[in-house]
Amino acid sequence: MNTTASISIGLLARQAGCTVPTIRYYEEIGLLPAVPRTEGGRRVYGRATVRRLSFIRRCRDFGFSIEQVRELVSLVDEPNRPCVEVREVAAKHLAQVRDKLAELQTLERNMAAFVCSCDTACAGGTAVDCTILEDLASPGATPLLSASAAPNTQASACCR
After folding, report:
1. 141 CB contacts (<8 Å, ≥6 apart)?
2. 41 φψ region: left (φ > 0), alpha (ψ -120 to 50), beta (else)
3. Which burial class, exposed, middle or buried, applies to 32 when counting CB atoms under 10 A from its CB (0-12, 13-18, 19+)?
4. What is the pTM assigned to this prediction?
């Protein structure tokens, strides 16, 4: 594979599935190395940059933070480092995803409870009598369920 092909920033963006501003941002923060420019000041990329940018984009698609991507890129750049380092980054991210999922499940239970309370108390009425609006306006009235709290079976039956 020719790694010295001259690729414009627009073509690089299309090939890697991202935008030109994203490429500039990744260069600015050091995820992509600075590249040579033509006499006219245009950036000139090689095929290796397409691969690296595609790698970065895929990492971001999986939700890795910029710092986690930076660490993964450093592991790509140092291929003799142990694979377990990559696994540790992925395992940490997996734990974060699971935490976020638990938060979203809690949010779902709370939203279902809101909808159920409206269905049983005020649906069809006016906004002034809406239990959802009242609960949202009263910080202590309906506290959010914690992720460890048992789901409200009445709300679950009412709202599914």
Report:
1. 134, 135
2. left
3. buried
4. 0.73
- In the CATH hierarchy, which fold is given to the domain comprising 9-62? Multidrug-efflux Transporter Regulator; Chain: A; Domain 2 (1.10.1660)
Task: Return the bridge partners of 7, or none.
Answer: 45
Domain ranges for the chain, please list them: 9-62, 103-159
> Which spans in 42-82 are helix H?
47-61, 66-77
Residues 23-75 pLDDT 10s: 999 999 999 998 888 888 888 999 999 999 999 999 999 999 999 999 999 99
Which helix (H) or strand (E) segment is 134 a member of? helix 131-137
Do the Cβ atoms of 118 and 132 come closer than 8 Å? yes
